[in-house]
Write a structure and sequence with these properties.
Multidrug-efflux Transporter Regulator, Chain: A, Domain 2, mainly alpha, 206 residues, 2 domains, 2 strands, homodimer, 65% helix, MerR-type_HTH_dom (chains A, B), two-stranded antiparallel ribbon
């Protein structure tokens, strides 16, 4: 199909599609003349994925490109690929200095108290440190009890996720990378809605 | 203290503090002359809170102001205040049209299957609809089983949160509004780290 038909099929403007082509998020079509190219269903699927990462998940073009690059060229090590995916997602954190023996002491203590294996250079450790500091600054520090309550439920969710990882290596990477990006907004929306449900049942407001 | 001492106490530049004063996030100091004002510990605490909302939680200045306005002027209805807080937080979603009897059918079905009470105009319903659509577009639709697995754990977390809500009405609003904003990054970081823990124990990579 031509770019105009691709626009109709995806509900995007031709200008937006050209922008994603220029930015390298969408692979080029097959050239049919000096000024025209032909696109297929793979382009439609890719554009839907781009839109979901930028529109619904809320990633920047640069973050979406980093995630799509990992899906396209995952490398051999699933563990390292997951690490790169997490680095590409918000919140953006500074990597630790190489010579700092204990760059994220609060996150380390929290993870030790949960008994969790972790790589101190994994971006989520810095993200946890930053999140714990923000809770302190808001006057709502995360107690050991709250950490343990949250941690147990999120570990259940992680077990569920890993139990359903596809066997095929390429599919596993896609599941890991996209699942980190795409399921997080579901989890946040569900938590907000669970608050509403519990509050309503207890007769708070309304 | 003068603004220069406030800058030293918070690690922020005088220009940044003046910006937050202009934007109305920080309340003015007590004028001591035509060009100087005096600030106190309440300003230090407020600046730490502003920094945590903008820096760690990743809110825009506009979103942080909306959250701070709710903490400052919460109104009487805790339920409605929580609704406004959720509307102010990302992801930004369009409110439903008044004449649309079923604007978010997938979210409605999901919440009905979880047996949860919900207000269809609560922003998190639109956020859930958008998140479910993004998962579809990524080729990773949320199954009924996954929804139920996530939903049960997030409801446990919501129960925990509500059980610890302060009795004092002002403190309860602060807990509700700031807790929604500040605890979410903790939850996302913990989920990412739980994935790493479970993956490492199963010998994936490393």
């Amino acid at each position: 199909m031509r770019i105009s038909a691709l626009a109709t099929a995806t509900g995007l403007s031709v200008a937006t599609i050209k922008f994603y082509l220029r930015e390298g998020l969408l692979h080029p079509g097959v050239a049919t003349s000096a000024t025209q190219a032909s696109y297929d269903d793979a382009h439609v699927r890719r554009l839907r994925l781009i839109r979901s990462l930028i529109g619904s998940v809320g990633l920047s073009v640069q973050q979406a490109r980093a995630i799509l690059d990992l899906v396209d060229e995952p490398g051999d090590d699933l563990y390292a690929t997951l690490g790169r995916a997490v680095s590409a997602l918000p919140p953006t954190v500074e990597p630790p200095r190489d010579d700092d023996p204990d760059p994220f002491p609060r996150a380390r203590e929290a993870l030790e108290s949960l008994g969790q294996v972790f790589d101190p250079r994994f971006a989520a450790v810095a993200q946890l440190e930053s999140a714990l500091a923000a809770a302190d600054a808001a006057g709502m520090p995360i107690s050991a009890e709250r950490l343990s309550a949250y941690g147990a439920r999120l570990r259940d969710i992680a077990q569920y996720d890993l139990d359903r990882m596809p066997d095929d290596p390429h599919a596993a990477v896609e599941y890991t990378v996209l699942g980190t990006a795409v399921y997080e907004p579901v989890i946040l929306a569900l938590r907000r809605l669970a608050h509403q449900d519990v509050a309503a049942r207890r007769g708070l407001g309304r």
